[in-house]
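User: Okay, second chain of the day. Same drill as before: sequence in, structure tokens out.
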Amino acid sequence: MVLKNSKVPLGTWKETVYTKVSMKRTALKRKTPLARTSFVVKKSVPKKKSKVKSQAKYKKELDAVFSRFIRYRDDGQCFTCPNKQHPKKMQNGHFVPRQYLTVRWDERNCNCQCYACNMLYGGQGATYAIRLAQKYGQDTVDYLESQRWVSVKLDIPWYIEQIAIYTKLVEKYDNRGNEGSEEYP
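Assistant: Same drill. Structure tokens below.
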């Protein structure tokens, strides 16, 4: 194998490195000269379009407001164990899992739980069911279980309405807490 315009055959690495290949150099010429610009380039900033919230964003916002309401309603007392902490450190535990939208925001289905009961012990379903039956009656437990399989279609106006309702309720609990409430461990 011989390089173009070279008379030295390629055989070893050293021969390849030291072999000169003649290349023709051409000057680069622009058809049009570059325009000179000042150092500060002014760009027009496009106006931001107002983004419309998706239904998923409203669902996430309702989850946050509703969870806060439940934790303040129960005053930080875990539903399945004697643990009591500040409501911000607690979680919103569901008897019927959150994936079932029919009872996801039902106040009877949700109660304040500590992290250990809700996450580490899987919500303590048996204890939760017993306490739920004591609080609301066995009929409510059966109703919540039966509503698990009911299909529901929720729209954005419903989410907006529920967010407004629970935001007002949370503000009521916040104002009550500012007056002087019990100390939390």
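The radius of gyration is 34 Å.

User: Thanks, on to the next one.
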